[in-house]
Design a protein that fits this description.
Number of domains: 2
Mean pLDDT: 91
Largest sheet: 7 strands, parallel
Number of helices: 14
Shape: elongated
Order of helices and strands: EHEEHEHEHEHEHEHEHEHEHEHEHHH
Radius of gyration: 22 Å
Helix content: 25-40%
CATH class of the largest domain: Alpha Beta
Length: about 375
């Protein structure tokens, strides 16, 4: 099967997934990227791509700083010409993706959509576009590939039959996280760490994580907080810290994927207080590193991976009190931290990129076979 994928730009996890998908027998993969760089990831134009990649001309001069404005007319040729058997379109929030889906409808080109849960209550300014253009495209897709039960429900609610919806989560190569030995287990006299890995933007609500830690910092002086990530909220967060606690809250800024495993390994609890996350790969990475996870229900990966409460604790979004309660529970109970961390590491293996690539390949090859029969 000749498979074309339309993607916004190379990100570290996407690249690994496409590399693995390209290895699957029976799939000849070409990925068409709208831009060379993703504003969310530094250095993404330096990745070695082990799959056939084509970078399309982008008419948007701000394409590398505003990823939602990609405009690539050549993407229409994917629907017009017949060199590919199936097209997988990732996301819909940029013009190129919407134009490609509409072209596939017009020229009757088989396509599948791959993306996060949709907002069933869009803003008034975008509601007509979604109702009259985006939603009909989803109905014409051969299949919807989405993340978690919330993603499945969101597409069901706009009338997509459940038999055409598949769960295909974001994934990455977890080998480096699974193989790093946990330095946090080596010494009882070391400072213990609560780790936050997130963009410092409003919807990540890192301020709630910080407020919870500051409330506990006087009582638990052997604990610090490490915050990895950067963004427009950093100054505001730094101003929240009292002088006597500045040495106990460490802002590391942007941390590359190569540096992350060692930071996870040197931590004791992972905390994520987002109010909205379509998946949340950091949860999977933390679990693969053997960390117990505290996360809000608003993070889809946490809802899926922590549903049995064996690997971590789920809390409500925007709740400082619940965050404090969950942190204190794990701070006090080392045995619980160890037990949850071991369970988390084992469960994360189900979401390694090679397994996700194989599972999604079965779906895509099945769709292609059905199209040939029909």
């Amino acid at each position: 099967m000749k498979l074309a994928v339309l993607s916004n730009s190379p990100g570290p996890n996407q690249v690994q997934y496409f590399d693995e998908l390209a290895k699957i027998p029976g799939i000849a993969l070409t990925v068409y990227y709208c831009a060379r760089r993703n504003v969310k990831w530094r250095g993404t134009d330096t990745y070695k791509l082990n799959h056939d990649a084509q970078f399309m001309v982008n008419l948007n001069p701000w394409a590398e700083t505003r990823e939602s404005l990609h405009c690539n007319p050549s993407a229409l040729s994917l629907a017009i010409h017949r060199q590919h058997d199936l097209i997988m379109i990732q996301g819909y929030s940029y013009p190129t993706a919407l134009a490609a889906m509409l072209a596939c409808m017009i020229f009757r080109k088989p396509f599948v959509f791959w993306g996060e849960m949709i907002n069933r209550n869009p803003r008034p300014i975008t509601a007509p576009v979604k109702k009259f253009f985006v939603w009909p495209c989803f109905h014409r897709a051969q299949a919807i590939l989405t993340m978690g039960k919330s993603g499945v429900r969101s597409f069901q609610e706009i009338g997509i039959p459940v038999e055409r919806i598949y769960e295909v989560p974001y994934s990455c190569n977890l080998e480096t996280y699974l193989s790093v030995q946990r330095t946090a287990n080596h010494s009882n006299d070391r400072k213990k760490r609560i780790l936050v890995v997130a963009q410092l933007i409003k919807r990540k609500r890192v301020d709630i994580a910080l407020k919870a830690f500051l409330s506990l910092s006087e009582q638990y002086k052997d604990w610090d907080m490490v915050i990895c990530g950067d963004g427009p909220c950093r100054d505001e967060l730094e101003k929240m810290i009292r002088n006597r606690e500045k040495c106990r809250v460490i802002f590391k800024g942007f941390v590359s994927k190569d540096q992350q495993p060692a930071i996870y390994a040197d931590s004791d609890i992972f905390l994520l207080t987002s109010v909205q996350d379509g998946w949340g790969m950091v949860v999977t990475e933390a679990m693969a590193s053997g960390l117990p996870v505290i996360s809000t229900y608003a993070v889809e990966s946490a809802r899926v991976l922590l549903d049995d409460k064996a690997c971590g604790i789920l809390i409500n979004p925007n709740s400082v009190s619940e965050t404090i309660e969950a942190l204190e529970l794990l701070i006090k109970d080392k045995a619980m931290r160890t037990r949850m961390g071991e369970c988390a590491r084992e469960k994360s293996k189900e979401y390694d990129v090679d397994r996700v690539a194989r599972d999604s390949a079965k779906i895509l090859l099945g769709i292609h076979q059905h199209l040939r029969v029909c």
